[in-house]
Structure formats: C-alpha cells, structure tokens
Amino acid sequence: MLTGQNFIAGASRASDSTFRAVDAASGQTFEPDFYEATRADVADACEAAAAAQGSYGALPAAKRAVFLRTAAAKIDALGDQLTQRAMRESGLPEARLNGERGRTVGQLRMFADYLEAGHWQRARVDHADRERTPPKPDLRLRMVPLGPVAVFGASNFPLAFSVAGGDTASALAAGCCVVVKGHPAHPGTSELVATAISEAVAECGLPGGVFSLLNGSGNALGEALVKDPRIAAVGFTGSRGGGLALMEYAAARSVPIPVFAEMSSVNPVILLPGRLAEAADTLGTAYAGSLSLGAGQFCTNPGIVLGVKGAALDRFRTSAIEALAEVAAQTMLTPAIRKAFESGVGALAADAAATACGKGKGDGEAGAQAQIYTVSGDDFFANPALADEIFGPVSILVQCNDINEIHAILKRMEGQLTATLHMSQTDHDIAKALLPTLEGLAGRVIANGWPTGVDVTHAMVHGGPFPATSDPRSTSVGTMAIERFLRPVSYQDMPQELLPAELQDDAGGVVRLVDGGLQK
Amino acid sequence: MLTGQNFIAGASRASDSTFRAVDAASGQTFEPDFYEATRADVADACEAAAAAQGSYGALPAAKRAVFLRTAAAKIDALGDQLTQRAMRESGLPEARLNGERGRTVGQLRMFADYLEAGHWQRARVDHADRERTPPKPDLRLRMVPLGPVAVFGASNFPLAFSVAGGDTASALAAGCCVVVKGHPAHPGTSELVATAISEAVAECGLPGGVFSLLNGSGNALGEALVKDPRIAAVGFTGSRGGGLALMEYAAARSVPIPVFAEMSSVNPVILLPGRLAEAADTLGTAYAGSLSLGAGQFCTNPGIVLGVKGAALDRFRTSAIEALAEVAAQTMLTPAIRKAFESGVGALAADAAATACGKGKGDGEAGAQAQIYTVSGDDFFANPALADEIFGPVSILVQCNDINEIHAILKRMEGQLTATLHMSQTDHDIAKALLPTLEGLAGRVIANGWPTGVDVTHAMVHGGPFPATSDPRSTSVGTMAIERFLRPVSYQDMPQELLPAELQDDAGGVVRLVDGGLQK
Q1: Could you give the ipTM of this predicted complex?
Q2: Which one of A15, A252, A329, A451 is most buried, counting C-beta atoms within 10 A?
Q3: Is pLDDT at B235 greater than 80 in this prediction?
Q4: Could B139 and A475 be called an inter-chain contact, meaning their C-beta atoms sit closer than 8 Å?
C-alpha cells in the first residue's frame, strides 16, 4: 500500500537513498523503505509551489473552504489504516490517535468555516475626501497570502501537528501553497495523509504545487527547504535546538523570512494557598495524571509546579506520589526522545538541589517511567537551568517559602506557552497580583485546570514569548493562526472593477472597517 | 533654551562627550552641544522603561488616549520654535515642516481615537461547553503590549517619523514604553519634542520610564539599545544597511526580538499605453514634480518608471525633462545623504546602460540637482542593480519593448513599499494581468497617482516585502501599525472578576468575536 515515495506537486518520486520507520515499542525498523528527498526534490517542490501560488492565492475563499473540507473528508476516510500505522510508528494509543484524527479534520473544517465568515480578510475602506488639503485618497486594505510555506511535521502529534496539522491547515486557509518536511518518526502516517491531501488537490482542480511532502531522516532536508528562495515563511513545532537552527537559516537568507517555531515550555502551575488547603489531594492526583498523559510528550506538559511549603503542599505531594505510583511505563515516540528524556532526568537526579520523590511503574525496556522531583524555592531561584524543559513524563515540584518567592521565580522565568493558577475565591487577591506577571510570561493563562489539552477555537493562543515560540505575536492553534501567513495590501484610488470583490462598494455581507467604524 | 541633555525617564542627563547639529544649508555645526548618551544611560533608560511597563501597559485605553492627546497638544504648542529649529537642522522648508507637525499631532490623536474605538484589542470570547467530550473550556483572548520598544528617529521626517512619530505613537498606543534613539541630524528638534512628551508624561501622572530620548552621533548607541535585554521590539526607518544591522543584532540576542525596519524602495511606476497616449504631457510634468519633491528624500520616491517605447513615451520624457529643468536645486537633509546621493548618481552616470536625459537647476554647492536617466528594458532586466535605491531626487525611466518586458522586470524586482499604475479604462485588461504581480511586490498599489504622499489612516499600508521592510506583515503608517507592538493572550476558565474588563460577560460596547460571530 505505502510506496515510500516523496509527493512532489502531485507526482510520486523515489531516490537512491532510503530510511525506514522505527516501531516505537520494539525499537526495530519496519517496512517499507522511504526515499530520502534530494536537493532536486526540494527545488522542484518549491518551484511547483511558487508556480501554483498565484492561482491558489487568488482562489476565492469559498473555494479554498471546499478544498479544506475535501481534504478533511479524505483524511477521515483513511480510517483504521491510518490509526494502525500511526500507532506503530509513534507508540501512541489507539484512542488518542483516533481523537487526534478528529482534531485534525476538525481544524481543517474550522478554517473552512472561518474563511467563509470573511472577517479573516480584515477588509478596511477609507473613502476619499478630494476637498481636503492635501486631497485624501480612497484607500482599501485586505490581507493576501505571504507565499509558499514550509511546514515541519512534529513528532508528538503525528496527525494534528504534522502533514495536515495546524500549520498546514492555517497556511492553506491563508492561500499559501505548502511544502511539508515529514517527520522521519512517522513516514507512513505522513504518506497516507499526503495521499489524502493530494487527492483533494486533484479533485478540486487545483495545481499540484499547492501541496508537496518531502521525506528525510536528517537535518539537511529542512535546511535546504528553509533556505530555498521560493519559501516565504516557516511553521515548526519541535525542539528548541531545531527551532533555533531554522531561525538562524531564515535570518541569514538574502531575503529573510518569518519562522513560526513553537519550541520549548515548562508551563508553570501555581498552587495558591486557599485552593491548596481545600483540595490538595484532588490536585495531587490530577497533577500525576497531567504530567504523565501521553508519556508527558506535550508542549504543554506541567513541568514545573510551584506551591508554598506546609502541610497542604505535603498532602499534595503525597497524593501525587500515590497516584504516580499507579502510572504504567509508557512507550515514547522515538528512541531519540526516550534517550533525551533519560539523559535529562539523569542530570536532574544528579543535581544536588533536586530530590526524587515519586515514580511511576516500570523501568528500563518497558518504557519511560513517570517521575516527580522536588526542589526548594531558594535552590530553584538560584539555578534557572532547573527550569529547562525535559520532554517527557517528569515534573519538578518547587517548594517555596512564600508567595513572594513564587512571584520572584515567575518574574525571572523564560517565556512559556501557558501559566496556570489553582485558586479559590480567597486567593483572588494573590491572583490579581500575579496576573500581570503571568500575562507577560505566557500566551495562555489558565485558571483551575491543567495545561495539557489545547482547544482548537477562536480565542485559543498556543504561543508565547521566546523560547516558547520564536514570535510572541502568533498562535499556532486556533483560527488566529491564519494571521501568521497573511500580509496586508492597500489599494489606492483603484477603479471598482479592478478591486478585489470584498473591497468593492457593493461587497455584500463582508465585515469591514469603513472610515474607522466596523460595518457588516 | 536647549540643554543638549538626554531625557532618561523624565530626568535630564549630560555626559563627557558631545556633538553638534549641522546646519543643512551651510554644512556648519551650530550650538548647543548635545551630550552623547553613555552605556549607562542606555541601561538606565531601558531599566526605567521595564519598570514602568507594567503600570503603563495596564493603563485603561481611555487613559492612554488622554496621554496621547496631551502629548499632541504640547507638540502643537511648541509652535514656530520647533519649525525654525527643524528647518535649520534638516534644510526642509517651513511649509513642509508645519505640515509635518500637523501630521505628527494628527497621528497621535488618530491613535487616541482608535484606542477608544476598542476593536484594536481584538477581543474574542469562546464560551464553555462542559457537556462536550472532552469538555470545552471558556477561552477569552485580547491583545497585550509586547514590552518596551526602541524607536530610531528617521532623518527624513524630523517630526512625523522621529521622536514622536509613527513608531512612537503606535508603540505608546499599544501600551509599550518607548526609548527613542534620536537622529543625530536633528538633535535640537528631538529635544524640543522630547520636552513636550515628557511634560505630557508628568501631567498625566505616568511613570517617567514611559518615555526616554537618547542622543548619539554614532552607531554604538543604537547597537547597545537593540541588544538591551529589556527591549522587546524595534521600530526603524532608514537605510538598508542600517536596518540590516539592527535585524542582525536582534536575531543574535539570547532572546531574539522583532525588528520593524522600513528600509529601501524604488516604487515602480508603470505607464500603461492607453493612459500614456492620452496624457503623456501631464504625466511627464507630474513625474518631475514627484521625483524632486522634498529633494526626493521620501521612502516612496518614484525611483523607477516603466513604459513601452514609442511616441507617447517620448512625449512623456520630453515633458518630464522640460518640467525638471525648472526645478531648483535643493538642500539635502545631511552632508552624508548628499554625498551618498552624488555617489549613487555618479555610479549610474558611469553605467554604460544609463543615459542622462534631464536635469534640474543648479549644481555643486547650491544643493542636489534633480535628475532623470533612461535605460532600455533589456539593459534594466539584465542588470538588477539598476533597481537599487538612490536616496534623493533621481529617477530612471525604463523604456521597454512591450508590456511583457515590463511584467518580466516587475516579477524579478525586490519587495517595494508601493507600485503604481497609470491607466485609462482601455488599459484595464493589462492592469488585471499585472495586479497579482504588484500585490506580491508591494504593500500599496496605487492607481493614477504618485507614490509620494502617504495618508495616515486605517487602510494605509506603508510596508511591503523585504527589503522594503524587514517584516511584510506590518505597516509603519496608519492605525494597523499598532499591531506590530501587540501580542495575543488567552485566558482559560478565568473567574469574571479576574478577567480584563473588555473580556468580562458584561463588557459594554466592545466589538468582540463571540463563538465565531462578530458582536458589538
């Protein structure tokens, strides 16, 4: 069924060099062979994207919406075959992957709806005033696509943040052609999804260059893709090292381009005293669940929990330890991720400031063992490296002297995707004092929940100050993600018949800012 | 009256080293001495900005609007003193500078109005659905300020794009504290404006760190400012070399920050055959006026004009030459700019492909002499360096074989601030074919006008693909400029009393996207 070939503008292509997927559970490679994309493949995919960009970018939004819905239906139709392949490649469980497929097609359909709603285009009309000195021109603004986008598939969401994931969906919605660099950890999953998108491209009569998928097991492919002069922007979810490398390539181009990299976050969770006193046990159990969910392989894993020392925090810790003891060892996405996890935990264990305080089941071959460490607030403040992300099911409970120490720690923390407050009504004054710091720190501030679980909606921000992302002004999840791939163009005194439809005088039903006032 | 001191968070400060302004017309320095800001001054200004950021960023928009209007009134009140100083420092004429003051205070007031309209905050509310599997949280989004912004005063707009110019106005509107690096070509003008802003800061009871002005005659000051860890973004208008240097500093920081640099543009103007045939004479006269306006010292100067060879283009050229012959030599902003202009024109004159075809009055000491060169379409296409910007009153008329050649030239051109079509009704089919290329090329597409003159309004885009700017997704003029300095934050399941007012259930009169539908 799988061919292992690259998808270049609708055509399949092999090469001289191959790699294989690794069964996440066994660590053994399995068939088929996947062909490494060559430099020529990169150039051809980018050239096809550039050639298709004009017509795809000019496609009416309603037609792009049809295309996104067609792609969603085709991905849905991949059914169990997709799930089974993704399970073996990623080690993720069936229910999770079925849910992730739902999320993937859901976000394609969400962008289709969003395109039809029209306000994404941010149309603005300023009427002329020829009597003014100097005469005021007629000015009309709308958003247009940036150009071909390079998308890097993420290992930890083989569907929802990979070939047809959030970056691809928002770029295609914006009218940008997409060249995906598939993640080598799930090449078969990638090929199946690419087949679905390619079929949708063909069925909708779009040029093949709208979508390409390139396979590669090393870093050279990604570097060539980001450096290709036809690429106009980059979407990436992955490690800090990987994101920083892409940012460097992009900045060094003769025409620098924006990189939207979602990289690194430890997602501080703050337990405020009132809430801790009333619900220490429940919170502790939930903590163990959140940090070990999906083997901790979420960008929003709660890597750092902060509370004030005392009986309630002791109860929280005890409860978390008890719950964690029941958590089974879990297969991680790849041997490399498992190795990095073991190495990160090893360094933490060797740190004199950190004390191992709770572990999940199993060890060694069985999979990653979930772990909790404790650190004093003083030690944590003195050693900011303790706040570096360790990707996997591990978290540090920081036992602080008082709220002031928590606040001081938060103030010196690096940028985060999320920051969470657990609080009761009695904690609101403390929360009010902390909130400005948390808003400055993170893209999403959560009350009384856990950061894992990122809803795909209009008001979601999955982004945040560096190093959570490369650009704090963006989100990679939710409808606002489309804005990463759009730029404004203004038309001055343009005759009606040459204006885009949504800027003409008789544009119906489009939300526009007209002479400064919002009109439907 | 002028002290020459730096303004650091409301306090004046001298240093051991000084420089003087240069009288643009005479080339002679004149009093007083201005103190070079030290490294300590940079650090102190940034520290004060960081310290003030929390309270200024949290100020209700209505109060920020009052502050912007107060600053506008104080700048207005500087009156003739400001104009006289700016005339001497910049060589620009009185009427232009009075107009520029109007534009400066106008854009401060425009941002005040825009803040009050509220939709700048882009409020979004997605209500919870606790019955969904998994439960859907309540999510609410708004924009918050990025943090302290470094603004570089531009030499060519000593008021409208300098100390209180578009970058400063939009950053202050966004809730960002501002540290300005004053342009050394107009330090006295800068001090006067800084006095006005500082008075407004004090009168509105704001912390001094909201605004600082640092003087410096070299590049070290700007480098230190961009590298200061407390700076969150940079606004710059100036040369390509200068902008690229700032981009490099910003990308190399341990926490990279966005740079919004407006750098380089030759603003192609295309004369379509129908319009050229009916109005060659008028167009030629207008061309001479536009290219020599303000000694050509506009980012939107029409540096390249493209037309199809023939009798009509000959008439256009003749008319332009005749009109240009009447244009007086003009004082340029600085001796360095004059020197760069002479050098650029010298290189052009030495290029075998370019033919000098028209000149304005005067030469040598009297000021810059306006000039037009012609180049064949073939030569222009073969030598892309002919499209490099020469800042000043010079323009190249590219005489092409046909429309296809014009289109081919446009397709390989670098990013531009503007692209202009002169056309009649009979040219609309050609225009339709060119428009997608022009949209991809520039931030503003103009019909039947000249690119000089940038209206400050809602639908203006003064931006465009690199190297016109460092970030094509931005504009530095108009209300959308505020978005450069804002980032989204999402609040999940936050109790009503802890939500920002505009996100609470009973927020009155704020435009919001509620569950995907726009509501007032």
Answers
A1: 0.97
A2: A451
A3: yes
A4: no
